[in-house]
Amino acid sequence: MKAFFEGIQWLFENIFFTLHNFLRALELKSWFAANTINWIFMIICASAMVYWVKQLKLHQDSGQENQDTTAHSFLK
Fold it and tell me: Are 34 and 26 in contact (CB under 8 A)?
């Protein structure tokens, strides 16, 4: 049974956490390089939010947005 859990430990430490260990070592050399993935995700999320807001504005300007309070049965 001990070998099973040591196998799981080896799998996570040597396989699954390789990228994390690389980023942890990279952070000591360059903080910006280590956090590049975070910046990429923030840029993707910000651009998605801008796209979403533009689409909401287009639907509201064209009159397709139903803002009647009776649009949902639970609001009656």
Answer: yes
Distance, CA of 66 to CA of 52 (rounded, Å): 17
In this prediction, residue 68 carries a pLDDT of: 67
Task: Tell me the domain boundaries of the chain.
Answer: 2-64
Burial annotation 2-27 (CB, 10 A radius, 16+ → b, else e): eeeeeeeeeeeeeeeeeeeeeeeeee
Residue 50 pLDDT more than 80? yes
The distance in angstroms from the start CA to the end CA of the chain is 60
70 has pLDDT over 70: no
